[in-house]
Structures are given as C-alpha cells and as structure tokens.
Amino acid sequence: xxxxxxxxxxxxxxxxxxxxxxxxxxxxxxxxxxxxxxxxxxxxxxxxxxxxxxxxxxxxxxxxxxxxxxxxxxxxxxxxxxxxxxxxxxxxxxxxxxxxxxxxxxxxxxxxxxxxxxxxxxxxxxxxxxxxxxxxxxxxxxxxxxxxxxxxxxxxxxxxxxxxxxxxxxxxxxxxxxxxxxxxxxxxxxxxxxxxxxxxxxxxxxxxxxxxxxxxxxxxxxxxxxxxxxxxxxxxxxxxxxxxxxxxxxxxxxxxxxxxxxxxxxxxxxxxxxxxxxxxxxxxxxxxxxxxxxxxxxxxxxxxxxxxxxxxxxxxxxxxxxxxxxxxxxxxxxxxxxxxxxxxxxxxxxxxxxxxxxxxxxxxxxxxxxxxxxxxxxxxxxxxxxxxxxxxxxxxxxxxxxxxxxxxxxxxxxxxxxxxxxxxxxxxxxxxxxxxxxxxxxxxxxxxxxxxxxxxxxxxxxxxxxxxxxxxxxxxxxxxxxxxxxxxxxxxxxxxxx
Length: 498
Hints:
498 residues; alpha/beta; Metallo-beta-lactamase, Chain A; 2 domains; eight-stranded mixed sheet; 23 strands; 23% strand; globular
C-alpha cells in the first residue's frame, strides 16, 4: 500500500490487485488554492503537474467545496488519458448532469451505501452513517478500499456515530477478510477551535480558549477508548485487531491571511501525540502517526516509511510558524454585511420570506434535536422573531418577521418591536441564497456568541439546499471550463471584503 498525501483530506492511494497491477485512486479533489465560497485558503497550497498525474479513479466524498473542486476536476479531465472513473456517492447523484456536461467522456459510478463495487479487482465500498442529530455533513460518504490482504478506510470529514450499530458495522468491515494490515485514516478538523481563538479579543482570552479546547479534545479522544469499558462493553474494538493502524490527516483550511497560522489551536503532530497517549493509557498497541504533505508513504508489515516527495507536485507553499498566542495578530470585526452594495430591498424581502417559510419553517418544525416549537415556548411573548437589516453599515433599516402558534407562516411584525431571537443582514442572506457565499466563513461574520442562529444552521443542511448547491457548482464548473481560476474569483472577493 502507498499513500501520496496532498494536504487537507486529499490523497492518492495505491493498492495492488489480484493481478499484481497497481490501482491508483484520488480521494477528493480540492487541489486549488481556495475553498470557493468559503473564501478560506488551502493549507498547503500546491501546484499539480497534470502531465505526470496518473490515476485510475477519483472519489468525491461530499459537496463541501474543500472536497468537491470543479476547477481541479476540469483540469484533471482535460489532461489525464485515459480519463479516470468518477466515483460519486448516491447523496450527490443530483449533480450528475453537471459532471456529464463539464467533464466530457468520463465514466461515472454511483456508489450506494454499503454496496460493494469491484473496480479492476479492487473492492470499493462507500459507507454513509446514519446520524440522529443535526449535522452539515449529512451527505458525507466514508470510503473503504481493499484487496485480499490490505484494507484502507477513511472517515473523510465525519465521525461514525457513537452507537452500537456503527461500532459493530466498522468491526465487520475490518474483519471481512484475512487482512495483514488495515489502515484507518482519520481526518481531523480543528476549525471550531481555530475560529474561537480568532474571535478572541485578548491574549489572555486566547490562552483560556486554548486550555479549554485542549482539555475537551483530550476527553473526546480518550472516549474513543474508554467507551468500550463503560458504554459499549459488549462491542468489539477494531483498535485491538493485530493488523490495525491509524493515521491522522486534515487541518488544511486556514484564514486567507497567513499570519493567523500562528494561532492554530492544534497541529497534526500534536493531534497524533494526543492519540498516542490515549491509546497507551487504555492499553491499545497499534502504530499511530500523522501524514506530512508532499510525501509518499509506503506501508508494509504495519510500518510506515517515507519513500520520497510526490513526483506530480510541481510546487508547494507550506509556511509553518510556531504557535504564538502572544502575537499581536487580531481579527478585525466586520460590523456590516460582507457585501456593502445597496440591493432592491423589496426583492430581498420576498426571497427572505420565501426562505423562512419554505425552507426554515418546515425544516425546524420537523427537527427533533432543536425544533421551533420549543424555541417559541421559551421566547418572549411566545413568538419566534427574526430581525433583518436591509442596506449596508452606513445606511440601513430593520424589519422583524415572526412566527407563532397563531400563524401559518412568517410575516412582518407590525408596531412596537419588543425583541428578537436572531438577526441578520439581508445582504448576507442574499449572498448565500444566490450561491456566492458559504455558511462556514465564520471569520467574516459578527454573530452574537450567546444567540442560537437557527436560520444560519438550517442553511448548513445540504439536502434542503440542494437547489442552491446545484447553482453554485454550475457557476464554478462553467468558469473552470472557460479557463478561469478559483483564485481570480476568491481574491477579487477578498480584496473587497478584507
């Protein structure tokens, strides 16, 4: 088994098939410099030599723009012959018309969850775990690839649910054959902690956040082990299998200002060390390490060896400053909307009311985790009120829209306004509804930490917003097909906003 690690969650895996031929699969496609609408930078930035890029298939795990990159996909299908097979999870089947239009002459295989697909005598299984809580990664498909003696599994950008069914399903997966080595590739995402540190107003606050977050991460990592002593005593642990290995990757999204790298809350090496300590504490004995971008790793007999730099990477930009919570770098708050243009507020109001009534209202009423009924019961005057500011930071006016048990839809609140549950700039919502902004760009927005932003969270949900996702990818696939770059799109937006 070989792994060519490209940074973030992207890599190429090589496995030998039954004919002793090498099969090469690229997992996820974010190979350009920015995460499209997130306006966040890739870490590290890399330049691919597509003339040397030799792969047999591409797996796309889900619809986030740090995984599904139209600009890289168009380049790949322009240069690589024969064209690689495109492996698409069934959750992204609605995007197939775009793949067919902008990636000419390619073959597409839709992966159904837990249905094995044989490709060049290699077994490929996509796995979608069922969650009983709200997540912005409901469409994520994890991936298992195996030959007769080796298994590779990546959780991509999600965590298998903490329940007996998922634990047993993973154990069945890891024991399906007489494996000699099985690698679990764990993708770590520290954005929640990084965002909190970026938002801090003082060095003291940063250090407090760092301490609390580190304690939280240690507890989360250790739970992966002690749960088998308390909550799941009847379940078997894949980490006790004699051929099990774990590798840590990820953390490849950063603020576009590289100075903020000094405020990274945890580095991959530190994550791997925390994992090693937890494993040792609970008596697990398996190889654990982290990948370094631009390196090719050979894994034989459960030993990892760096066997060189990746041959198809032309260049890599990977600044790596020491973490320094005492540095003088602080994020500047943006008090107004990200887009300061004046829009037609009547048209905006119609869009926002349509979104509140046709997306937010049914979604939240049906959400068992945090439904609108309970929010109304706990709200002042038993109304749920969303405040919208129309205009820009220099000139604006406000409108309140409410829903109550006496309503059948959100409507404008007339007369005296006595409070609100959450508030937004109309321009920010317009940006999202017109596919020119993402939700995860938290460092651009100034949201009150003590408020629950239910509308914003609803807009995270991929399935209810598939229409918006389709428009977004259509726009960027078209740009890519015309030879335009993601840099020219993102940098022009950043220049206006930052």
